[in-house]
Amino acid sequence: MKLACTTLGEGPDLLLIHGWGMNLAVWQPLVSELEGDFRITLVDLPGHGESPWNETMQTLDDWTQMVLETAPKQAIWAGWSLGGLLMQRARMLAPERLCATLGIATTPCFIRHDDWPHGIAPEILPAFARELESDNRRTLRRFLALQVQGAEDARATLLMLRKEFDARPEPRPEALRVGLRLLMETDLRDLAEDSAPPARWLLGERDTLVPMAAGKSLSGQVQVIPGAAHAPFLSHAGICAAVLRELKSHV
């Protein structure tokens, strides 16, 4: 099974991995900033956008291996939200394939624990899972709104997010269920490798899903974008593009 992908631009290789429920079109504002700097590979996650779905794709490693099979042999990897979990896992499984990484609004663990106060309340994602069973589209629309909640320009960012979401086929319900389970169950905090490729992180000051306080517990250089929520590459594409250009020296 091959994941759907698009490659455009010229320069060092850059891979962009979207988040849960979205598709590769969501990166368009950032791609417009970077086409002259990178050869950019955009990938649809399993069962998202135009990528096929297979019921055997049940684990984070399954999804990560599919992305590794699609990715350039060596590239800078940037992952947003769930895509950031795959990026982090690839960094552990195949560090030689990643020249550098940029985690955007992502952490090693999305759910709050007693020793990890930087995650989502444990009851939120299971509630989304229950709602998916009755109304996929309404649940996804609600999740889109949650991603921009608190941002300076929340309305404009939400309209952009909805436009890009609608640009490709809706995700498969089975893929949504597995993706939510990956967000709920994955904890990569104990698997970080100091010897892995250089890591950068971009967090939104007003992100309600990945609190900026998580930056204190991340290994690598962390930058918080003032006024941004969970989709800073849409609301602050120029800042995200500037950080990725800084990583070109690692290619």
State the helicity in percent bands: 25-40%
Terminal Cα span: 29 Å
Radius of gyration computed on alpha carbons:
16 Å
What are the low-pLDDT stretches, counting only 5+ consecutive residues below 50?
none
Helical element count?
9
Biggest pleated sheet = 7 strands, mixed
Q: Assembly state here?
A: single chain
Strand arrangement in the largest pleated sheet: 1-3-2-4-5-6-7
Order of helices and strands: EEHEHEHEHHHHEEHH
How many runs of DSSP E, i.e. beta strands?
A: 7
Strand residues, percent: 15-25%
Summary keywords:
single chain, 251 residues, alpha/beta, 7-stranded mixed β-sheet, 7 strands, globular
Question: What would you say this structure looks like, in words?
Answer:
The protein has 251 residues and is α/β, with parallel strands linked by helices. 37% of the residues lie in helices and 16% in strands. It is built from nine helices and seven strands; from the N terminus they run E-E-H-E-H-E-H-E-H-H-H-H-E-E-H-H. A seven-stranded mixed β-sheet has the order 1-3-2-4-5-6-7, sandwiched between helices. Strand 2, helix 1 and strand 3 form a beta-alpha-beta unit. Helix 2 crosses helix 3. The longest helix has 13 residues. It is globular, with a radius of gyration of 16 Å.
Topology (elements, then pairings):
Elements: E1 5-9, E2 13-17, H1 28-34, E3 39-43, H2 60-70, E4 75-80, H3 82-93, E5 98-104, H4 124-134, H5 136-148, H6 154-165, H7 173-185, E6 199-204, E7 221-225, H8 232-235, H9 237-246
Parallel strand pairs: 2-3, 2-4, 4-5, 5-6, 6-7
Antiparallel strand pairs: 1-3
Helix pairs in contact: 1-9, 2-3, 4-5, 4-7, 5-6
